[in-house]
Amino acid sequence: MLLLQVIVGGLLLGAIYALFSSGLTLIWGMMNFINFAHGEFVMLGMYVALLVVTWLAGGPATFGVAAAFALFVLGVVVYLSLVRHVMRGPMLAQILSTFGLALLLRYTAFWIFSANFVSLPQTSLSGTVNLGGILMPVAQLVAGLVAVTLTVALHLLLTRTAVGSRLLAVAEDRNAAMLMGIRPDRMQALAWGLSAASAGIAGALMATAYPWSPSVGETFGLTAFVVVALGGFGSVPGALYAGLIIGLIQALSAYWFGPIYKDIVVYALFAALLWLRPQGLMGKA
Hints:
Blueprint: H1 2-31, H2 38-56, H3 60-86, H4 91-113, E1 128-131, E2 134-137, H5 138-160, H6 162-172, H7 174-179, H8 184-207, H9 216-231, H10 236-256, H11 262-276
Antiparallel strand pairs: 1-2
Helix pairs in contact: 1-5, 1-8, 1-9, 1-10, 2-3, 2-4, 2-8, 2-9, 3-8, 5-6, 5-8, 6-8, 9-10, 10-11
């Protein structure tokens, strides 16, 4: 029963990994652009949730929407003020621009919130629930289910709506999309907003169950890159499957070998998979 509880917990955590990684894979698939500040977007979503709870006494629905809106705006601003000016430059300029943005956001958070770990006060998601003998924190259960739902919704948005068709058209051929009346800058700004919003919601969901500090963005950024590379760059379903796999591997590794070994096992298996299948689970060769 304890092992089953560990498995369920790992899958729920993996669902949140999938949600914030889907935003990263969206940017790569649409623009071939690497966002090294994506982990910091997740971290900011956690602090937005904290501010809404402590200042406005808002509940999970309130701070989830607030995190999505705040990070959506930030994503659009980052695209308009930074990304569109460097995306046609050399790859080194792209890497350094978002890496510098990550440092700016991280150390600004250190300056405002300090380096101390914080956690959300008690919310309506506090407590545990018994699922057939499996005791799960309500916050972790709700966070995982919401993350899966939103990841699937993002995939449906890209594949079943007119907006998604425009986004994919810009990803396929920017010039041809312009000839069809689509404004690439507007679509790419929307993509950055959606990417940052997914990270913000994931951060708000993580905040309900785990303590954090400004440095947590670095860890989330590395996790997102592992998930995206494992699932296949540009594939939202791949990010979902890979996120669940990574969460499950981390949970089982911590259970069998100890918490300090969970990342070692994940990165070792990740490196082995890339050796055998470098395009990831659902990426194109």
